Amino acid sequence: MLSIEEFEADASQAIAARADGEDKKAAKAKKKATKAKEAAAAADGVSFHGGQLSCAGKDWTELPRDVAESYGKKTTRLDLCYNDINTLRNVELFSGLNELVLDNNSLGDDVEFPALPNLTTLSLNKNRISDTEKFLAQIKKSYPKLRFMSLLGNEACPNELVLKDESDYQRYRYYVLYHLPHLKFLDSRSVTADEVGEASRVGQFMKVISVTHDEMYATESEPAAAASQFNPLPQEQRDVATHRGTIGTCKYVYYGRHSEGNRFIRNNDL
Asked: pTM (2 decimals)?
């Protein structure tokens, strides 16, 4: 007959073995569920693994609602590059998102950026954003934890890809950092402490006027005068026979200090 101590020891071992078996069973079930989710993602035409959802190259104009509902709560990195996306509808369902990749799409100035309080990385290379001021106002409000951002290939980012020089690009960086001083990386390089300091001093005055998409790719067939409503020439042509001019002399002598040619002109030369 077992003693009380031996009975309690056997009971403890049985309970531990049962708990261990249940843990292994739960781990196996979890692993099976993960594989099922990955298989479902493959069936949807997307790739999901380790919290990263890739939907690249699907020719979507917006993120499908069913995909957002299926993966929104468990995705930390969303890749939507190489589509034709022109709206961020349904992206708001990815409430725990840390990284959002939107390169090579059709997002313009009318896009509404949904609030994602945990977003730290935003990549918008090669889109159609041109209004820097409007864009930064939305980003500042929607992504308070943003630390990494890239806008290369947009009209709002005046680098060599949009026919601008280095001085314009540096002015753009000061303007962006004035509005988003917590950025650690902007476009293709890190943000320095000196840049942040200079941006706080002059950044609000550094807005760069960007050319629009239509202006950049205007055809040569368009008349040059259409670009401006001002013309120094008379609106009506004059008849050469009726043209009248004036001629006279001046009693003043011009002594231009930095004009080596004009200072030798006298009245009798006029």
From this structure: 0.65
